[in-house]
Amino acid sequence: MILGYLANMVATIPTWIGLQITDAELDVAPAPGESKLEHKRMDTSAELIAALDKSAGVARSAFEKTTDEHLMTNWRLLARGQAVMEAPRYQMIQDTFNHWAHHRGQMTVYLRLLGAKVPAIYGPSADDNQFR
């Protein structure tokens, strides 16, 4: 996966959580013009940070408005209209967090290759001062 696409995904994945709470399903391969997700190319760090802030706000707002009972109800992931996965919303949200962490981990490889410092993901990274 190229870095730009990966960075875009990492910035916008929290939006999926909002959809998992507010909508009954999401089609990841919808007919043209029917996507619930905005696919906008972002070329600068500022655009990516703004997208992350926006998508995190969507997830946060959805969490504030939901209930435990609602999170126990099923949610469906579709591809071209066909169910690929169906599970309680809380499980799908957990899978989304894991998916997000996976892609953030992939980005650390790019950061290392570019000579950038790697931020802490699951705790301190080797770039933190405590390792020096």
Q: Your description of this structure?
A:
With 132 residues, the protein is an alpha+beta fold. The chain has one domain (3-118): dinb family like domain (Four Helix Bundle (Hemerythrin (Met), subunit A), Up-down Bundle), CATH 1.20.120. The chain is built from four helices and three strands; from the N terminus they run αβααββα. It has helices at residues 3-22, 45-65, 68-71, 89-113, and strands at 25-27, 74-79, 82-88. A three-stranded mixed sheet has the order 1-2-3. A hairpin with a 2-residue loop joins strand 2 (74-79) and strand 3. Helix 1 (3-22) runs parallel beside helix 2 and helix 1 (3-22) runs antiparallel to helix 4. The longest helix is centred in the C-terminal third of the chain and has 25 residues, at 89-113. It is globular, with a radius of gyration of 16 Å. The protein starts with a helix and ends in a 19-residue tail after the last helix. The model has no long low-confidence stretch (mean pLDDT 90).
